[in-house]
Amino acid sequence: MIPGLLREAVARDGETIVYVARERLLEAMRYLKETPGQDYDYLVDVTAVEFRDRERPSKSCTSCAR
User: What's the pTM?
Assistant: First the structure.
């Protein structure tokens, strides 16, 4: 594995979950697809969380209002 590529990797419910910094996501995907011995060719999920600051709450975020 490329040093510093993964922020965290955990096994949960029989699945491996990896956390990658967004600026290194493409590098991680290429590594998993193109590195001999990895050979991943199927991606199940890519998810993200957006944290809004209190100064600019989203319009749907009623609990964020002061």
Answer: 0.53
